[in-house]
Amino acid sequence: MSSAAPVVVAALTAALGTAALLLAVERLRARRHRAIVLRQLRTIAGDRGTPAAAPGEPLLRTGPGDESSWMQAIATRVPQLRGAGPLLQQAGLSWSEQRFLVSLGVGALGGAALGFMVAGGGLPALVGGAAGASLPYLHVRRVRTKRLHAFEEQLPEAIDLLGRAIRSGHPLTAGLRMVAEESAEPVAGEFRRVFEEQKFGLPFAESLAGLAARVPLVDVRILVTAVMIQRDVGGNLAEILDNLSHLIRTRFTIRRQLRTYTAQGRMSGMVLGALPLAVGGMIFLMNPEYVMTLFREPVGRLMVWSAAGLQVMGFLWIRRIVDIEM
C-alpha cells in the first residue's frame, strides 16, 4: 500500500494541474468577454459620468460560501480557481468555487485509484487522475453550453415581448418584468435579475453589463449595446427591438444552412474516428493473438499511443474546420 501512495499523489498533482489549466483558459475567455462589454458600456455611459463598473469591481456575484475556511482560502489564493466563478454562473449552477474544488479533488482521487487498480501502474493512475479531475469541468461546460443554447433560442421571443410592451406604453423596466413573468427559463431568470437590480437602485448600465457577462452571447451583447445607445441618443426602441429580433432569426437561418453545408465534413470526422476502432475490433475477433502483439511489445504500444494521439489531433482539426463562428 505504501508503494501506491506516491503514484496516487503524483496522479492527484497531475489532475489538479490539468484542472487548473482548464480553468485558466476559461478565466481568460471570461476576462476578455468582460473587457469587451465594459469597454462598450463605458463608451456609451461616459458622457453621463456613470461608468458601468470600476476597474477592479467584479460584475458577477460570488456563489454561496458555506464551506470551511481553508477551502475558501485555497479558492481565493489560487488564481486559476477564481476563473471557475464566471463559468459556474454562466452554467446557471448554484455551486460555489469551493464545492467545485472539492469535486475536482474527488474526481482526481477516484480516477487515480481506478486507473491504478485496473492497470496497476503509474501512467494509468496519472491518466485516470487527469480524466477524473476533468469530469466535473466537462459537466459544467456541458450544462453551460445547453443553457446558453436554450437562452439563444428563447431570446427572439423575449425581445418581441419586450418590444410589444414598450409599444403599448409600458416603460422599459415594466417590459423587463413582463419578460421575466411570461418567459421560460433561463431567459426569465436573467431578465428577472436585471429587473430586481433596477428595483434596488443599481445603475442600468451595470445591470446590463452583468447580463452580458452572465450570458456571453453575441446577440445579448448587441441587445445591451442597442438599449444603451437608445437611452443616450433616443429613438424608437420598439422598432430597434423588432429589427434586432429579425436579425437574430436571420442568423439562426444562416447557421442552420451552414450546419447543412458542413454535415459532410462532420460525418467524415466521425467515420474516420470510428474506422480504426471498428477495423481493430474485427481483426481482434478473427485473430486475437495478432492484435495483442501490439500491446505486448514496447514498439507496438508506442505505435498504439502514437496512432491514438494522431486520431485525436485529426478529429479536433476536422472539427475546427467545420466549426464556423458567426
Q: What's the CATH class of one domain, please?
A: Mainly Alpha
Number of strands: 0
Mean pLDDT: 80
How far apart lie the N and C ends?
Answer: 54 Å
Number of helical stretches of at least 4 residues: 14
**CATH third-level topology of one domain:** Receptor-associated Protein
Helix content: over 70%
Largest sheet: none
**C-alpha Rg (nearest Å):** 25 Å
The fourth-level CATH homologous superfamily of one domain is: Type II secretion system (T2SS), domain F
Structural class: mainly alpha
Shape: elongated
Element-by-element helix/strand order: HHHHHHHHHHHHHH
Estimate the strand proportion: under 5%
Low-confidence stretches: 47-68
CATH architecture of one domain: Up-down Bundle
InterPro entries: T2SS_GspF_dom (IPR018076), T2SS_GspF_sf (IPR042094)
Subcellular location: Cell membrane
Protein name: Flp pilus assembly protein TadB
Pfam families: T2SSF (PF00482)
Notes on the protein architecture:
The protein has about 325 residues and is mainly alpha-helical. Helices cover about 80% and strands about 0% of the residues. The chain contains 14 helices and no strands. Helix 6 packs antiparallel against helix 11. About 5% of the residues have low confidence. One of its GO terms (cellular component) is plasma membrane. Pfam families: T2SSF. Its main location: membrane.
